[in-house]
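dumping this here before i forget
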Amino acid sequence: MTAASDTHSKMEDAQAQIVRLREQVEALMKDRVAPAVAEFAGRAENAVHSASGVVRDQAQAMSGRVKDQPLTAIIIAAAVGWVIGRAMR
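structure:
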């Protein structure tokens, strides 16, 4: 009976250690990982916002150039189309 009792006590000790480890991991996630992920998400959102502003500004600038020089824009578009068409063959 002592062997069974000893085994049972070791199993309870192991289960208690697992519970403590789980609590430590959860605390670590809450204290360290979650704030780091939130900070990274904020930085990524700012970068996307900045990039979209740059793209929007570039698109407006290109639109202005096309309006100012429509013939040049048509020639450039035709040349790009021709090059892409040749590359696809």
